[in-house]
Write a structure and sequence with these properties.
The complex is a heterodimer. By secondary structure, chain A is mainly α. Chain A has a domain of 120 residues. Chain A has seven helices and two strands; from the N terminus they run αααβαααβα. In chain A, strands 1-2 form a two-stranded antiparallel ribbon. By secondary structure, chain B is an all-alpha fold. Chain B has 13 helices and no strands. Chain B is elongated, with a radius of gyration of 42 Å. The chains are: A mainly alpha, B mainly alpha. Chains A and B meet through helix 1, helix 3, strand 1, strand 2 and helix 7 of A and helix 10, helix 11, helix 12 and helix 13 of B.
Chain lengths: 180, 183
């Protein structure tokens, strides 16, 4: 007997409003990616400074600069990726995508507004994200400000084909019991 | 010479009179009026068409037809030129045909599965598929309970932006131009 693939759950969901778990998981991955790339950048900069000036760069000594750099980097990280393809690294991994409220690809203006208003949704214990859980269109404050929404973009049908293909390659050890 | 010349003369006279009378009668009759008075439908109803057809030897007629000669006279190219192929293709419901396909059976019967597996299946994509599917499952779980708590029906909620889900009644949603991540 063969076990149905887990992707069957997601079949035909392309274009539907994405749910709170997928979106929060994607955001968590984005924070990890954003912080990881920032840390690598700081480490690279420290190494370069040490190599060129023979001095050690301590971020703690330049907290304001480091904070400003982090804010600017965060803005670039989200705004650039949303403008480019409507999704960040985390969203790509979770198979979701930002679209305009009417379903068209998101533009530069919407991407920038969404990035700038995202912190508003996160302050006060994510109260601005409550709409993602209880809203009819699963939109947070930043979605309303930027007139955007988040939809599933994951091609679950292709995933199912891959699963079927893999089953085809596997030796069939357990056979279906004969009727009667 | 006729044995009875009087009888011959009378006969030719009678013939001439008869012809003249017929002409006069024909001139006097209004044929259009007569035809107007004829109930053709009634006549046709009385005709046993099946009997007539039964008497026709269709095989004999077909045997006499030289089909090869007819086909030789047909300009196929000209007919094809007049056919609007785009119009025909446009009337074919491809989505419906695809929807009817049994993909599972197709994959089992062809080598396509092996080809796809060799070219695209990787550990990463498999892990991503599972994570995404789990995410969708949890999304549904929370959405279901939220709807239950808010006492609203799931069927009343919009599925997605109209331009993405409005045209997806039977064949699934329209593919997103930038959104096909899994590959």
């Amino acid at each position: 007997m063969t076990v149905p693939p887990p992707v069957e759950l997601a079949m035909g969901r392309q274009g539907h409003y994405a749910g709170v778990v997928s979106r929060l998981a994607a955001f968590g991955l984005d924070i990890l990616a954003l912080w990881g790339i920032y840390t690598l950048g700081v480490a690279g900069l420290s190494f370069a400074v040490q190599l060129l000036t023979d001095r050690t760069l301590h971020v703690d000594d330049h907290q304001l600069v480091a904070l400003t750099a982090l804010v600017v980097w965060s803005f670039v990280y989200f705004a650039y990726q949303w403008t480019l393809g409507g999704r960040t690294i985390g969203m790509a991994l979770l198979g979701i995508q930002v679209r305009s409220a009417d379903g068209t690809p998101v533009g530069v203006r919407s991407a920038v507004i969404r990035t700038l208003t995202l912190p508003l949704s996160l302050v006060f214990f994510f109260i601005g994200c409550l709409g993602i859980l209880i809203g009819r269109e699963r939109r947070g404050w930043h979605d309303h400000f930027a007139r955007t929404c988040v939809v599933y973009s994951w091609d679950a049908r292709a995933a199912r084909l891959r699963w079927l293909a893999k089953q085809d390659l596997k030796p069939r050890t357990v056979e279906e019991p004969a009727a009667g | 010479m006729s044995p009875n010349p009087i009888a011959d003369r009378l006969e030719s006279m009678a013939q001439a009179i008869a012809e003249r009378v017929v002409h006069l009668v024909m001139d006097a009759i209004d044929l259009d009026a007569v035809l107007d008075g004829v109930d053709i439908d009634r006549i046709i109803q009385r005709v046993d068409i099946d009997a007539l057809i039964n008497r026709v030897d269709v095989d004999a007629i077909i045997d006499r037809v030289d089909v090869d000669k007819i086909i030789e006279r047909v300009d196929v190219d000209k007919i094809i030129e007049r056919v609007d192929v785009n119009s025909i293709v446009g009337r074919v419901d491809v989505d419906h045909i695809v929807g009817e396909l049994d993909i599972d059976a197709l994959m089992e019967q062809t080598e396509l599965g092996s080809i796809i597996a060799r070219s695209t299946t990787g550990v990463v994509s498999e892990v991503l598929d599972v994570i995404r599917a789990q995410g969708v499952g949890l999304d549904d779980f929370f959405a279901r309970w939220t709807n239950r708590l808010l006492r609203r029906k799931e069927s009343e909620l919009p599925l997605g932006p109209p331009s993405l889900v409005g045209i997806t009644s039977a064949a699934g949603p329209a593919p997103l131009s930038q959104g096909t991540v899994a590959s």
